[in-house]
Structures are given as C-alpha cells and as structure tokens.
Amino acid sequence: MVVRDEGYQGNPNLLRAGTVYAYTQAEKDEYRKCHDDSIYFIESYVKIVTLDDGIVPFKPWDFQKEMLRNFDKYNFNICKLPRQVGKSTVSVSYILHYILFNEYVEVAILANKAATARQILGRLKLAYEKLPKFLQAGIKKWNDGSIELGNGSKIYAESTSSDSIRGYTFNLIFLDEFAFVPHNIAEDFFNATYPTISSGKNAKMIIVSTPKGLNLFHKMWKKAIDKKSEYHPFEVHWSMVPGRDQAWKEKTIRNTSERQFRQEFECDFLGSEETLISGSQMSIMNTIDPIYTEGDLKVYEKPEVGRSYVVNVDTSEGIGKDYHFINVTDVSEWPYKQVACWRNNEMPVMLVPNVIKSICESYNNAYLMIELNNLGQQVSDILRHDLEYEHMFTTISDTQSSQHMNFKYSRSQKYGMKMTSQSKRIGCDNLKSIIENGKYIINDEKTLDELKTFIVRRNSYMAEEGKNDDSIMTLVQFGWMSNQQVFKDQIDSDIRKLLQNEQSGYNEEPEIPFMITPTSGMADPFRQGVQNSFADDEGDRWFPA
To answer: Residue 441: beta bridge partners?
Structure first.
C-alpha cells in the first residue's frame, strides 16, 4: 500500500524520492530475489521497445545471459559483437539493476556522439518507468542527459570526447560502440576516462562494440585475448542469434556486401583499404614486451656475437612534435627482425648522434643509414666527422630524384639517403612485400600502431591526420635499402659467413662481452639486473653476451 504517491513532476509512473511506501511481504520477498539475481530481475521486470511488437518484456537469449553473468563476475569486460544482437539492451538492463540495488554509485554512459548516449539513457528511463513501484528507488532528477535516484545513485550520458567526464569519479563506465570513436580522439579519450574509475577496487568498465578497423578497440581486444590486460573478452557469432541461418547470411550479403558482412556480422577486424599493409596481415601481427626498457630505449633482443644488424634513423627538430626514431633490425637471417628502438621528441638534435653511435656500437658496429632530409644531414656529419663512426651506408645520386647505395669511395657520395618521392614509393612497395610475405617481424607495439594508420594521402603514404609515422619512415628506408644490390651483396655475405661459422662450431667458442657506452641523453640499457658486469679503466661497462 502506498501511503503518499504524488508521482515525479506529474508522471504517475515515477515514484518521487522521499515517497513513503509500505511493502507487502510478497513484495519484500520479490525485492530480495531481484537484488540477489540480476538475470531474474531482468527477465521478470525489464521491458523494451521492439520494432514489430512495441513494448514487450525483455527475455534474454543464452549468450545475453552469459554477458550479464560476466558483468557481475568481472570488473573489466570487453565484448566483440555483431550488429543488432541487443548489446545496448543487455548493457542498459544490467546498469538499471546496478543503480537500483546499490546506493550512491555513479555511472557514465558514453558513446561516440552525445545524442547516441542520451538515446541509450532514454531506453533505461523507459525501462525504469515500467517497473512496479516497489522496485523503484524514487526520482530526484530526471533530465535528458542525467538522472538521480533517491538512493543517491546517478547516471550521466556523454559523448566520448577527451574532456567529457574529466574530473569525475565513477563506479561503472559503459562505452558503447567504442570502435567507432574517431582515431584522432580515441586514445586521448581513454587516457582521460580510465583514471575516473582507477581509484575504486570494485569499479567496473564495460566496453561493447562491433569492430571497425584496426584501432584502439582492436588493440584492447587483442590484449584481452592474449591475457595481457585485466579485460575479460567475450564475443558472439551471428549464428547464435535465433533466426539467423545460412539463408539469412546470403540475403544480408546480397543487400549489402561481402566486406560489410565480414565486418559487421562476422566481426572481422578489417583494416582500411588505404593502409600500406593489408588489414588481414596487420590483424594477425603480434608484438612482444621489451626485455629491457630504459628511458626512451626499448630492447627486444640483446646483441649477439656474430650476428649482423642494420640501424635506420629518422630525425626531427626535437621540439615536442615529430619524433627522432632509431630502429635496429637483425638481418642475419630470414625473417628480418626488429630487435630494439629508441623514440624521443624532445632531445636537441645535436645530442642525437651520440645516442645513435652508442646503439650502433652495442649492436656489433651495426650498418647505419640516416635519412638526410631536414636535420638529418647535420646528424650524419657529426657521426662521420666528429664521432668518426665508420659503418655508415652511403648513396650516390643518379639524377635529382634517383639514387643508389654505394660502398666504393666517390667524391659525390653522401653518408645517408634522401627520402624523395621515388625512393619513398620504392621503399613502401618493398616494405609491403617483405612484411606481407612474413620476411620482417615488428616487435614494437607503437611501431605497429603507426603502421595501422599509415595510409594514402595526397597520392603518397603518410600518417593519418593527428598521428605520427616516424617509426614507419625508418622501415620505408629499410624497404628501399633491401632492394639495393650493395645491401643484398653485403647482407648475403654476412648470412653465408654466419652459417659457415655455425657449421664449424663457432657458436661453441667462449662468449665475449658486448658493450654499450653511456652517452649524453641515454642511459646504459643493460646496466641493471645483469650479473657479472664490470667497468674497465676507461669507465666503460662490459656485460656477458
């Protein structure tokens, strides 16, 4: 029996906060059942709007019930789902239970557009209105973009902009269709969003989306699958939806396209058709964690005696925009492999040559190629004339736009290469070939991320708007080099020599040390955690290989 019920703002379906409600024993028993079991509550009391039948009770399918159980069990959930499988309905139903049966919790519903987020909130408000009064918590506020209940719980609906919920603290964040958040704001948004729940031990994050390319959602999904994050992955195949069979698939493809079906219903992570490397290839490429990180240096494999390495360098102004990037490749055998990299966008360009030399010397006096565009010529001159590093590849210009690598001395030779439109085109073509044929392994996560946004723009390949491609340009350099006869002759010779040494028992000889010399702006990358190192009389530190 309701002692006093005036409704909220004249809406008789809404119990106003502060209304005194006298529960019957049956209602108390039912309330406890709903409190203890979200699926029971949803099956018994949540109503939704359907296209064909209007407002009807929500009866979750089996996979939807599994989603609900996951939401209860895990604090972090990421769901890869086809179109039109009720992902928003399931999530809204769970959120409704969450705010009704928890006091003073705050929830954020976020979508790529504010209008979409408010539409989702609208579904929750409709479901709330259809609840019997004994399950309602009373209304304090009931706005288009937020609601507040009498038990102190609140919900906000916002867009996924980088500052939409900055400064707030939430118990639960629901991200709808996260794959559709634009590339240029997705990472900034997520970096701003995660701290809003990080302080709570029981805080929850629910991410649901249909895939759309190789973006942040794809990256987070792969990490979840590989158990490299705390997110629990859950996916649904289109055939799990009642009524969807082979005939339905064929009809859908006829009315759309094979590619659209693969992305929206098969949930394939298809890359942009404009990327240099095919989406199917990038979707199966895996990176690894560095074995050592010191400042801006990441090491994936230590130098090994007898192996050959190539270092490619792309320099910047060092003023916080584009990056200096140093890429180290093991070219001793197929497939070539990225074994270390250094990335920095603040170091003055005059100090970069010291870093380059230190890395090159550490990796068996690696062959070095520097892009001479912009400040690259200055870096090359310092390395060659001041630091006297000898293992530098040289080039000779045939014409204004054409050049080739050279090992013989020539007055016109340059220590490095110019990245022209012609050399870039050749480099991109060769890079595409060696990566898609499995002949180059990328280990660095940020390098792979840049590759996913390296697309055709203005009749050339470059980074998407707001992204960087400095690491990729070192790979383009390598792609151009790999087709040069001088490079082929030298590397083939090194590989033959390595094989001969292995066959003659060379690898059974005592190990000899390698050294990385500390330089201005770069810490000794193997200084910590390695036993039996020692410093010589000149202050250089040596380590066992």
So the answer is: 337
The domains located in the chain, with CATH, are 25-236 (3.40.50.300), 292-506 (3.30.420.240)
Task: Answer for the pair 288, 222: CB distance below 8 angstroms, yes or no.
Answer: no
Matching residue, tokens 């288009």: 144
- Considering only CA atoms, which of 332, 330, 369, 345 is closest in space to residue 473? 369
Tell me the C-alpha distance between 410 and 228, whole Å.
52
Question: Are the C-beta atoms of 314 and 469 separated by less than 8 Å?
Answer: no
Nearest-angstrom CA–CA distance, 75 and 97:
16
Query: Is residue 493 left, alpha or beta, with left meaning phi > 0 and alpha meaning psi from -120 to 50?
Result: alpha
DSSP conformation class of 307: -
CB 328 within 8 A of CB 432: no
Which candidate, 96, 93, 140, 145, places its Cα nearest to that of 119? Answer: 145
Handedness of CA 220, 226, 231, 237 (dihedral sign): positive
Cα(415)–Cα(402) distance, integer angstroms: 16
pLDDT of residue 270: 66
pLDDT tens-digit series, residues 22-48: 889 999 999 999 999 999 999 999 998
**What would the mean pLDDT of 349-366 be, rounded to a whole number?**
93
For 104, residues 6+ apart whose C-beta sits below 8 A from its C-beta are: 151, 152, 153
What is residue 464's predicted lDDT score, i.e. its pLDDT? 77
Question: Average pLDDT of the chain?
Answer: 82
Residue 307 has φ and ψ, to the nearest 5°, of -95, 155
What are 127-186's pLDDT values in tens digits?
Answer: 999 999 999 998 999 988 899 999 999 999 988 765 655 667 889 999 998 888 877 677
**Interval 66-102: pLDDT, tens:** 999 999 999 999 999 998 888 889 999 999 999 999 9
- CA-based torsion, 240, 241, 242, 246: positive or negative: negative
| Residue 191 reports pLDDT greater than 80 | no
The H or E element spanning position 202 is none
C-alpha pair distances (Å), 257 with each of 82, 83, 283: 15, 15, 21
* Other Cβ atoms within 10 Å of 60 Cβ, number: 18
Contact 174, 110 (CB under 8 A): yes
Burial 158-179 (b: 16+ CB within 10 A, else e): bbbbeebbeebebbbbbbbbbb
Q: DSSP of 111-161, one letter per residue?
A: ESSHHHHHHHHHHHHHHHHTS-GGG---EEEE-SSEEEETTS-EEEEEE--
Instruction: Report phi then psi at 463, rounded to 5.
Output: -70, 150
Output DSSP code: residue 84.
T
Q: Is the pLDDT of residue 403 over 70?
A: yes
Residues serving a catalytic function are 177
Give the per-residue pLDDT at 507. Answer: 44
